[in-house]
Amino acid sequence: MLTPLFAAFLLLQQPGHRTIAIDERLAEDGRISIGDRLTISSTPGSLSGDTVIVSAIVKRGADPAEIARSEYRVRMHLDHLQKVAGYGDRVDRFAVSSRGPRTIDHALSAINATAFGFQAWRSRDIAVETSRTFQVVSRFHKAIGLITIVASAIFLLCIMLLKVEERRRDVAALRLMGISRATVVKGIVAEAALLALIGCALGVALGWVSSQFINWYYQGIYRTPLYFSLITPGIVSLAVGLSLVLGIGAGFVASLRLVRTPPLTLFGR
Amino acid sequence: MTDPQGSDQVNVVEARDLARDYDFGADRVHALRGVSFDIPEGDYVAIVGPSGCGKSTLLNLLGAIDQPTRGSVRIHGESVAGMSDRNATNFRLRNIGFVFQRFYLMPTLSARENVELPMAEAGLGKSQRADRARELLRYVGLAHRERHRPSELSGGEQQRVAIARALANKPAILLADEPTGELDAKTGSEIIALFGRLNTDGTTIIVVTHDEDLASAARRKIHMRDGLVVDP
Amino acid sequence: MRFALAWSSLRRHGTRTLLATLGVAVAAAMLLDMVMMSTGLRESFRELLLSRGFQLRLAPRGTLPFDTDATIENTTGIIAKLRANPAIVTVSPVLGGTIHVPVRGKVVTSAALGVNPLVQGDYELLSGKDPKGRDDIVANDDFLRATGARVGDTIEVSAGYDPQLRTYAGSRKMVVTGRARFLYGAAAQLATAMQLSTLQEMGGPDRRDDSSLFMMKVRADAQVESARAWIERAIPEVSAISTSSALAQVDQRLSYFRQLALILGTVSLFVGFLLVTTLMTVSVNERISEITVMRALGVSRMHVVQQIVLEGIVITIGGATAGLGLGLVTARYLNGILSSFPGLPVAIDFFLFQPKAAWVSLGLLSLSGIAAGVYPSYRAASLPIATTLRQEAIA
Asked: Which one of A57, A218, C193, C292 is most buried, by most CB atoms within 10 A?
């Protein structure tokens, strides 16, 4: 990044040229460095225009709206852009900061009542409106998550049933010895709980590793500092809680089925 | 070895110096120590002896479901020792009929389907094997039970179905390992009678048994002790 | 006989078989959905792009069609240049804008397209006539509902709104001549179309000869790329986009969904395989003595394996068949969610059913069903017969 001293030095060297800042993506793709001279124009394909000097390279923000868009960002002085684009004394919007949260409402109504041809909004409301795309993606992910949970419940029940049935002769022997149904069920459920706990730990570790990979991979693909996957304590708690409930529940259902069968039938007689 | 039928009889089984060892960790157990005998066609032999003398091991070797450590065994002139798994399997299918102590019927198939199983494997057509299965079930007195599953049959009936199954592909010999072991005395005697009838009709039978009645029903006995054939 | 044995074995443990089949159905549904999603958007978009036969599109340089508010100046000159190329058969210019219609004290805002009705490729007329006159307008049902207008009605239409001055650059009375379905319209989006020159006039002097997009038909598919290259040289202020490059752009922007489809599809397949493997292993372990006796009777190892693998295939195919129906239902549900992407043409489906997708899913699952049964059955069929029978007897 350019130091103020160096920027001042460049300005002194090229008194007739304005300066611009470009984003890191443009700098990388166009192999542009600080101090390079560029020609800018608002006419596509034009070879003539304003000559400018690149005085800074700007990091791209973690803006979801920029994902998968291959646009470049250039920052210019307002009057310079107005001149180049032929806008005249126009802007698209003003960003306004108020003295504090309590003054926002007053400021909003004052601006909307006073200004001619303006509409003022809270930044938050704009963010909500522009993030509709990500709300759709979020709903989609939730739907996939729901389907996964239903599928997992079925798989767990099936596999637990199989594994518990594998031990039906052991269960039959215990029952013939006089061990009560409740004790047998408790034993199987305890095993299922232990398996579920181990599975949870492995799952959380796998999820964390996957999350790191996903962020590394997509940040590289889309060239953004945005985080695509975030594991929060809430998410971990939900996953662990659900897994335990499903695992223990499946073990309970499977064991109940077994202890209700007469022991001799379990022996195959 | 002795040949009670006379020297012009064809031997179905010829065993020479049969031995079988098992390794259990560092220990080596000599289940059979060198057994030799002949069994002519149409014979009915009972192999008797105390538990652990090697009777069942001998039967397994004769039935080509196990391989000897030493020695040879020829069934119908064909050497079964050293056969590949594929050849031994095919040999068993066409030449050996097995009857087990625990019947080992397929629980999900009917009596007729159980009898058809070896014939299906041998490639017989559907109607052909159905007809033969019915014929065999009639022979063992279970024609009226052909559609019943093993769980719907008594122990004796299950064993008779097992015998019918063993006869499916017209084997050279019928091998039976304690066929009356899981049956009560009355049912056991029915099975003994059936074996007698089979032998009268020409089937060569070798049984391994503790059952004195079954052993007495055979034409001759081979006594075993500690892995060897001994005089009684 | 083998099938009879396999079927009777499955029926013996009905609940287990049913649950496993249900598990496979869920895996199959997920797999089908992911296969559909991996190709659905692309195919759906391709069908849309080619629905009217236009193989090339021109947009302001560096942009995609209607991606920004930028326009192309000198429409007349550009059309003349394009028509000079004999490979280009049809040129359809389109200008995008916004119109405002006062209705009972409020103003209804709608998207508007300025087109040449003779060669347009943006809407399908459902009833009435094309806007052949300067004051004619066609609209979709959402617009007609919002304004209360019907075909034949005259409405007041304004365009070129200046928010600073709160005035319009152009207003006129227009007659609704037809009802149309806009091919690229988003769900519930109000849309209208009129003559290109009408919308240009209403947009003010700055838009006199502007277009947002040109759509073109080329004489033969083989000439598309050469026409594209020619245009980029001859008209530097535009970007020429063929169907394939548009699809490539979409692929790049929505690669996330393809990758998600691949990952979830693989996981579904693996879980389905795991389920059937577990079932087969447990089932085989329970039947070791039966299997060994079959071997003792003379049933070959291969036939034992075939019989058990057949059980796995029955579960897999049964599950896959049920999963087909379930997959179509869940695809509809998921498609409903994704179709609400802002600005997405309603004609676009993320999940497009293609028979190939179903066959691919079924094929993959069948292979996994076979693989799941092979190892446990081969292992069981290879056990030493005498030893196993003795051990089973003791057990």
From this structure: C193
C264 and C30 Cβ atoms separated by less than 8 Å: yes
**CB C237 to CB A140 under 8 A?**
no
ipTM over 0.90: no
Per-residue DSSP letters for C44-91? HHHHHHTTT---EEEEETT--TTSSS--BS-HHHHHHHHHTSTTEEEE
> B182-206 pLDDT, tens per residue?
889 899 999 999 999 999 999 999 9
- For each of chain A's 269 residues, which pLDDT tens digit applies? 444 555 555 555 555 789 999 998 899 999 999 999 999 988 766 778 889 999 999 988 777 666 666 678 899 999 999 998 888 888 888 888 888 877 888 888 888 777 666 678 888 888 777 777 788 888 988 998 888 888 888 888 888 888 888 788 888 888 877 778 888 899 889 988 998 899 999 999 999 999 999 899 888 888 888 888 899 999 999 989 988 998 898 889 888 888 888 877 776 65
Residue C220 tokens, joined: 């033969």
Cβ <8 Å between C275 and A117: no
Out of B107, B113, B121, name the one closest to residue C298 (CB): B121
For C278, the closest of A44, A162, A218 (CB atoms) is A162
**3-state SS class at A79:** helix
Residue B36 has pLDDT above 90, yes or no: yes
What's the token pair of residue B216? 């007495």
The DSSP output letter for C211 is B
The β-bridge relationship of strands B70-75 and C213-218 is: unpaired
Residue B185's Cα: distance from chain center in Å? 21
CB A100 within 8 A of CB A42: no
In a mutagenesis test of the A interface, which of C69, C212, C256 is the best target, namely the one with the most A β-carbons within 10 Å? C256
Q: Which of C1, C12, C386 sits opposite B66 (nearest CB)?
A: C386
Strands (E), chain C: 56-60, 88-103, 106-115, 123-128, 136-139, 154-162, 167-182, 191-195, 213-218, 238-242
Question: C120: which residues sit within 8 A by CB, 6+ positions away?
Answer: C92, C94, C130, C193
Going from the C-alpha of A214 to that of each of A208, A217, A223, B205, C34, the distances in angstroms are 10, 5, 13, 71, 19
A146: DSSP letter: H
Q: Residue C109 pairs with which residues in a beta bridge? A: C100
Q: Is C58 on the interface with A (CB under 8 A)?
A: no
Q: Report yes or no: C299 at the A interface, CB cutoff 8 Å.
A: no
What does B60-119 look like in DSSP terms, one character per residue? HHHTTSS--SEEEEEETTEE-TT--HHHHHHHHHHHEEEE-TT----TTS-HHHHHHHHH
CA dist., res. B102 & res. B158, Å (int): 9
Q: What are phi and psi of A118, to 5 degrees?
A: -115, 155
Q: How many CB atoms lie within 10 A of CB C132?
A: 10
pLDDT of residue C203 exceeding 50: yes
pLDDT in tens, C18-68: 888 888 898 889 888 988 888 888 888 888 888 888 999 999 988 878 877
Best residue of C213, C286, C288, C329 to probe chain A, by most A CBs closer than 10 Å: C286
Phi–psi pair at B180, nearest 5 degrees: -105, 10
Secondary structure element (H or E) that encloses residue B13, with its range: strand B11-24
Backbone angles phi, psi at C72, to 5 degrees: -105, 125
CB C177 within 8 A of CB C138: yes
Note the helical H segments in chain B. Answer: 55-62, 85-95, 111-121, 126-139, 155-166, 185-200, 212-217
User: What's the pTM value of the predicted model, to 2 decimals?
Assistant: 0.76
Distance in Å from the first CA to the final CA of chain B: 15
Between the two ends of chain C, the Cα-to-Cα distance in Å is 29
